[in-house]
Amino acid sequence: MRHLFLFGDHPLITTSSNALYTDLSGYYDLMCADIDYQAQSHFVRRLHQLFGNGGTSHLDLACGTGPHIRHFVDSGFQCQGLDLNQPMLDRAKLRCPEADFILDDMCAFSVAAPVDVITCFLYSIHYSGTIANLKACIESAHAALAPGGMFCFNVVEKNKIDNRLFVRHGAKHSDGDFMFASGWHYNGEGEKQSLKLSIEKRAGLDTLIWHDEHPMVAVSFEEMTALLEPYFEVTVFEHDYEKILPVGSNAGNAFFACVKK
Prior knowledge:
alpha/beta; globular; 12 strands; seven-stranded mixed sheet
């Protein structure tokens, strides 16, 4: 059996922070096969009904291949998706031809007309990378929202990260059998944490393993709330898409619902 290990400096994978997704964008949906996009999308629509302005224009930041957008479109929303990765956007357009897609940075974007709901799922808000960029993302979202519009996203609490924990799942594909693993890492101080990813592909006698590490911004719930409060009325919920409950004191992740002031 041959094993080939591919790292960030391998010619097939560049050193950019989104290189893994760029080169393996065809496997992105497989990597996220265990995610309940429908439940996540429905959760935000429920929050929007309760706290938002009732409008139906939607922008999804870091939209990837568009699975959340598909559910919003099917529920009657007029959707846009924004991502830095053109191969992802190409796939999103195939999935959601009714939506518009923008190649742009979520920390410095604008829209032609205000929207009613902005989402940023799968902890992608952490891709802001630094507190300064995170603040710029918040400001961009605030400027892009209509009065009473809502900005929704999930966050991992930096002080609750266990560097030993990884989430793993396997999936079958015509190209072979895959095993995906991801885990957060925080050294205990500062504004930097990382998301460590690995993909193992087995096809016949060959095994290929990709490793990547994405730089992320590290924040506590308290710090995130302080950044948001000049712009939004902020409510923090348990990370449970089946229930709408205030976040508990021991939670390691949470869902932020922010209504434009």
